[in-house]
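Record type: monomer structure entry
Structure origin: computed from sequence
Chain ID: A
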Amino acid sequence: MSQHRLKRVEREIRRFVGEFISRDLKDPRVKGVSVTKVEVSRDLRWAWIYVSIYGVPDPTEVMNGLDSAKNFIRKELGKELRLRIIPEIVFKEDKSIGYSFYIDEILSRVAKKNGEKDSKGNKG
């Protein structure tokens, strides 16, 4: 399969799943979820959907909620995309946003210690 088509399928899955989770999924465990990235295998049999979880004390509960809804999401995805093969969905937590906040906090502390301005423009 061409790289261009794979990227297009990834974009469509990301768009659909992101909207579906926020609009149609009724599971109370699945809150504060944003789809950040989708990777699809070359044969379209697998889709790894990376989600960012924020404002939730226990991300494990959110991941369990997504796991229990993945077959329902896959069925709805099949109706939307009309592909011959609908990929199996694997949800993965994307920790990059949380990590970037952590790095920003460290840099702010170092800037304050050195009397410099931090990333928000505050002088330390």
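Annotation 1: Strands lie at 33-40, 46-53, 88-93.
Annotation 2: The chain has two domains: 3-93, 96-124.
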